[in-house]
Amino acid sequence: MFACIFLLTAAISAYHAWRRGELLDRQTSVKSIKAVNWKDFEYLVSEAYRRQGYSVQENTFDGADGGVDLVLNKDGNRILVQCKNWRSRKVGVSTIRELFGVVTAESANEGIVVCSGYFTSEAMEFAKDKPITLVDGAALSQLIGDVQKSPQIKTSMKDSACPVCRSPMVMRTARRGKNAGNGFWGCSRFPKCRGTRSI
After folding, report:
1. What kind of architecture, by CATH, is found in domain 2-159?
2. Domain coordinates of the chain in residue numbers?
3. Which of 80, 83, 108, 119 has the CA that lies 20 to 30 A from 71?
4. Phi then psi dihedrals of residue 154, to 5 deg
5. Nearest by Cα to 86 from 160, 21, 140
């Protein structure tokens, strides 16, 4: 009887792991990421970090989650993750403040807010000097593409809008510094806006 229960539990666990892997590997764009439901969005983010070598603990409780959906552990670092699959509005500063409060209270090393869309300028400004990383839809699609078994993600110029002002990006080449000679996406409003994205 115990052996049957053990085998059933192992089979269910293996199925969930396979399903999450399939969910990640079939993503093709920011648009496909936005199309998944909120729970699958959390699974998608969870699998992406798991493939980066993190040990991932998911919040399995219904209701309030204290601002945390995932807990990542790697190299002795504990990172709290909040997932926001908001398609129609930007993630504001209140979400960032909430997670920062939890990171501080839990003595975690870092907090990450992942969304399928964009962050407000106030949210980005608040996170600047804090142990908080903001991952928007375009950055998430790049993260997923990097860990897919067979890369399917195709990031468009629209997906790669400036993370600061949302203006179109243009291809530029770094002229100095450690990345001299390498290409990157730079805001079309430069020098008024200095937003960049890596290629």
Report:
1. 3-Layer(aba) Sandwich (3.40)
2. 2-159, 160-199
3. 119
4. -125, 105
5. 140
pLDDT tier for residue 110 given thresholds of 50, 70 and 90: very high
Q: How far is CA 85 from the centre of its chain?
A: 10
> Which helix H or strand E contains 81, and what residues bound it?
strand 77-84
Q: What is the DSSP track for 99-148?
A: HHHHHHHTT-SEEEEEESS-B-HHHHHHHTTTTEEEE-HHHHHHHHHHH-
SS3 84: strand
Tokens encoding 8? 């059933």
Least confident of 46-50, 157-161, 170-174: 157-161
- For residue 18, the Cα-to-chain-centroid distance in whole angstroms is 20
